[in-house]
Amino acid sequence: MRVFVVLALVAAAAVQSDAGGMSDAQKQHDVNFLLHKIYGEIRDSNLKAKADSFDPEADLSHYSDDGAAVQKLMRDLKDHRLLEQKHWFSLFNPRQRQEALMLFDVFIHCKDWDTFVSNAAYFRQRMNEGEFVYALYVAVIHSPLAEHVVLPPLYEVTPHLFTNSEAIEAAYRAKQTQTPGKFQSSFTGTKKNPEQRVAYFGEDIGMNTHHVTWHMEFPFWWQDSYSHHLDRKGENFFWVHHQLTVRFDAERLPNYLDPVDELHWDKTIVQGFAPHTTYKYGGQFPSRPDNVNFEDVDGVARIRDLLIIESRIRDATAHGYIVDKAGNHIDIMNERGIDVLGDVIESSLYSPNVQYYGALHNTAHIVLGRQSDPHGKYALPPGVLEHFETATRDPSFFRLHKYMDNIFKEHKDSLPPYTTEELTFAGVSVDNLAIEGELETYFEDFEYNLINAVDDTEQIADVDISTYVPRLNHKDFDFKIDVSNNRGEEVLATVRIFAWNHFDNNGIKFTFDEGRWNAIELDKFWVKLSPGTNHITRKSSESAVTVPDVPSFSTLFEKTKEALGGADSGLRDFESATGIPNRFLLPKGNEQGLEFDLVVAVTDGAADAALDGLHENTEFNHYGSHGKYPDNRPHGYPLDRKVPDERVFEDLPNFGHIQVKVFNHGVHIKQN
């Protein structure tokens, strides 16, 4: 799910010199306190002093844009044009997004950390909390000043967006009565709703974090003038959401559910959704009943407009070119065409012609999210689909993305299949592929803190308040791959590992072409092959498509305190939170063992690599938005194009293919 990209190897000397050599530990300390208890006063005395005394416009030489961004924001602040505090925030609301980006613009143009953190403290006390959190998160991700800062888990910063309202209500009662509590969260719905069987996937807080963090790494509003270009952003948009879609289908099979059907504008939305979540300020998230027909959404879009936009995009895939705003043709009948198409469908500011092709993805999220109140009759707040934090909770999210994924498939299937010559890594063969350890999943309860969910004052002491929710995990296992190198010299190789369901929901074996489109990327890494036989062992915990759980607030506070005292914080592995959770690598499986096709392709690393040293620098496997992608190949290569004759792969020496089973024996490790 997570694509490969090099971390920002940015201006280290400049970062070291900022603010007199401000340490990473001090920066971590500042961010911890800026985001802790976001709806109350800053609890750090130094930051509170900055918030009270700092003048953002006093010395404009500390900004790389000579203060243009901060002056613009200060004008709106002084004119009382900004959204008030204690109000919901949605990135899909144009004015609210503009305000959040005005603050981001200030952060990204700060030359030193002291200016950055002083502005953060100042505006934290004066701007809407949701706008502030969004702007600070994106700034920390993209600013070289904050390169080694680990952001706290959003589910502890803004718990309302991740936690059922029943648990939130229990947390309030615990705070009011000063009684510590640990409360169970449950997934939305009941057993009467078949979609409840896969709620553990869409409502998983790690999956929610992955989705929102990816959209922070690669925001649709990004302009290169901020600081850097987001390499292959449109293709990344396709790949991340394609992987979410095929993975959701893989979860449905062991739960006796058919693959999701795509949504369409002239068809009924069969599945309703009741979020059981509440805004901190603004009421309940709206529900949607079953069997709703799409209606125009006032002030957003008519359904007719979306059909027109779709037809224009499908015409582009059929003709093999995009028309830019100057009327020129951009050829997409090549491996980079998917990148242009992704920019068009999202649509990001990278789209070559947003006026003609519109913003299918972003508009669709709003239109689907507003179907509870399309004409604003009841003044309902935004639906879950209007927040990247909550969007995957609604099963219709996956139906919406199946609809867009099928447009991407039309384009991919229009490209010529790879030839044997293009796929062969001469002199290299996969001799054996095996799994060491049983592929077994289980459920475990995960606990996180709710102290930021409740109202807060320094006059009333905190009590321990938390919730726990079941989540999918799997036992560790290893990939065992034997590869022969008969080229007579050491060579660099890329190892690509995928899996797909062996049978469909009707028990019919997938053809190779059907399977490869539904393939889940399990890992990708570089290795040097010595002449002769190479025995490769790759641990599931090393997978480059996953990330570990983000440390909790309490852990961050503890580690930061140790680091300020001179110890190693041990936080380096958590600097990127974009990727599926490392416990989420395998689909659930079943008691009998759900059959999967496991494939490995060993390809020419020298031709694949866009950077040097990929086999020895594991930082290149971390997810991030700076710099160039290490892999020159398209995402999903070599399974990204249609395969009319699967014998091409069967006879490919550098390709391994076996069947495996994923088990789930009903184990649930519960909280004490």
From TrEMBL:
<feature type="signal peptide">
    <location>
        <begin position="1"/>
        <end position="19"/>
    </location>
</feature>
<dbReference type="Pfam" id="PF03723">
    <property type="entry name" value="Hemocyanin_C"/>
</dbReference>
<dbReference type="InterPro" id="IPR005203">
    <property type="entry name" value="Hemocyanin_C"/>
</dbReference>
<dbReference type="InterPro" id="IPR008922">
    <property type="entry name" value="Di-copper_centre_dom_sf"/>
</dbReference>
<protein>
    <submittedName>
        <fullName>Hemocyanin</fullName>
    </submittedName>
</protein>
<dbReference type="GO" id="GO:0016491">
    <property type="term" value="F:oxidoreductase activity"/>
</dbReference>
<dbReference type="InterPro" id="IPR002227">
    <property type="entry name" value="Tyrosinase_Cu-bd"/>
</dbReference>
<dbReference type="InterPro" id="IPR013788">
    <property type="entry name" value="Hemocyanin/hexamerin"/>
</dbReference>
<keyword id="KW-0732">Signal</keyword>
<dbReference type="InterPro" id="IPR005204">
    <property type="entry name" value="Hemocyanin_N"/>
</dbReference>
<feature type="domain" description="Tyrosinase copper-binding">
    <location>
        <begin position="394"/>
        <end position="405"/>
    </location>
</feature>
<dbReference type="InterPro" id="IPR036697">
    <property type="entry name" value="Hemocyanin_N_sf"/>
</dbReference>
<dbReference type="InterPro" id="IPR037020">
    <property type="entry name" value="Hemocyanin_C_sf"/>
</dbReference>
<comment type="similarity">
    <text>Belongs to the tyrosinase family. Hemocyanin subfamily.</text>
</comment>
<dbReference type="InterPro" id="IPR000896">
    <property type="entry name" value="Hemocyanin/hexamerin_mid_dom"/>
</dbReference>
<dbReference type="Pfam" id="PF03722">
    <property type="entry name" value="Hemocyanin_N"/>
</dbReference>
<dbReference type="Pfam" id="PF00372">
    <property type="entry name" value="Hemocyanin_M"/>
</dbReference>
<dbReference type="InterPro" id="IPR014756">
    <property type="entry name" value="Ig_E-set"/>
</dbReference>
